[in-house]
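[job 0412] stage=fold_complex status=start
inputs:
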Amino acid sequence: MKIIFIFTLFLLLSPALVQQNDANAILRKVEQNMSSDNRVFESEMTIRGKRNSRTITSRSYSVGDKKSFTEYLSPAREAGTKMLKLENQLWIYSPSTDRTIQISGHLLRQSVMGSDLSYEDMMDDRKITDVYSAKVAGEETLDGRKTWVLELTAKVADLAYHRRKMWVDAERYVPLKEELYAKSGQLLKRTTLSNVQKIQGRWFPLNVVYKDMLKAGEGTEFKMTSVKFNQDIPASMFTKAALKQ
Amino acid sequence: MIAIQLALKNILGAGWRSLLNIAVLSLAFVIILWHNGTIDGWNQQARKDTQEWEIGGGQLWHSAYDPLDPLSIQDAHAPLSADMTRLAGQGQLAPILAVQASAFPQGRMQGVLLKGIDPEQKVLKIPTEILQKNPDGALIGKRMAQALKLKTGDALLVRWRDSQGAFDALELNIAGIFDCNVPSIDAGQIWLPIERLQTMMNLPGEATLMVAASGFRPAETSPWVFQSEDVLLADLNTIIQSKKGSGAVLYGLLMIIALLAIFDTQVLSIFRRQREIGTYIALGMTRRQVIGIFTVEGSVYSILAIVLGALYGGPFLWYLAKYGWAMPTGGQDMGISISDRIYPVYGTGLVLGTIILVVIAATVVSFLPARKIARLNPTDAIKGKIQ
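[job 0412] stage=fold_complex status=done
writing structure:
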């Protein structure tokens, strides 16, 4: 009798547990692909406006999710602008004024160079598995690829996005699409990832389209033209002094 | 008396030259009254509107709150004490919670300030009764409605971060649009029932500032700091003083032209009327009495100018005071309280002060050339010898 009860209980609870374990396992595999000790990449960010679009190229160095340094290379107006992120602090150096300013408070809500990305989107650097409880909501085919649809709900209150929905490539464990929701359930942002390449033994999407769903427009396209993982990056790169060099 | 009769006779005898002097001086007189009356009228209206719509009888601010520093708003909030809640219930205080947010009209992003206020408050003139009837609605001013191209019944998507930093978004229904002359409670602001905003922010019972009812001085308790009407109206006072200063340049120039003309006329009179001056002295008048005759001429100029100014300026100034003076539409977007029409106010102090200013200035410029009389030799003067 006791065995039957335990077996029945297991059958009742197991789908939820399995779902959660599966989701966390999927997220861990995603993190293995997407995270690295450090990486260096060059990118083109195309911002599409109502009348025209412009492309900004940059070179970035990052260590984990906590430190990053970006130098803008073109167009001429933006060339030489540098951005340094250390933990939850962000500084921008502008060569035209030769000044370094810290981005904080309401300035974090402003868009990065007119794109659909805001500075605060770059600030949340906690591990997804630490701050969200995930479950597999189903399977879908996206651009011909089988994906797991994960639903992530915030475990802590101080997260920017209360709920996320992530479509993860079931074979390569790379997110192909992500939607970010407000507490009210309003869709706020959508990210579409493509051009998944195998780089240094890991699958990695090189193209990302960010779309602020509350704003009109086609969104901002972010293309990585080169990516290198686990490079030797000098520690002095992640200091405020490096901004003026 | 003789001096006044002589002065009148000489002024009227000078014909067009006198009329021109009097006309220019009267114009300066009317313009001084009009300009200062307009500024005083604006000042009175702006102070009244600002008190009725925004500052009440003063405000209690959270110590971290600085309306000129957007970075301060995020942390400037605290729960109301039991005493404050009681005073709010009695209509002595109107708590307001301010929150920064982004609005998305027609797919554009615009920074806005969400302000929560008790729909039943009577401290301010903001028509919050609209929110009583529409607790899910929002109230905006005419400038905000114009800027975002919104009308009553429209929906506006708003995104904000709650007290813990989580994004939230909601479509607000515009329940009403109010018309007021105080842009600081209108431009870039959306008014909601305070309890609703407290729930949206997860800040139950908290406020950023409290507006006191007129004549009520609330006690300061940490973290609340009282800002008196004088402090809150300091910016307006500075603008009024600056406007008065710039206006003074305009009518100062007009006064200088009029006074120069009187000065010039007096110099010419003394030069051409040397025989007359010599005769006065020969008849037994002291030099001081003769100087007095010429100085009084200047004063009579000013009195005639005031009379002429009153004749044509009186109806003009009365008309403006009664029907107002339409302000250009752009004037209301400058961020200062200014109504569609300004009604000038001509106080007794202003009218008397202007009369005294014109009379004294004209008398002084008449006296200066007349001092030369003291140095005239009466014999040579009677002979008409140029000295």
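[job 0412] summary: The mean pLDDT of chain B is 87.
[job 0412] exit 0
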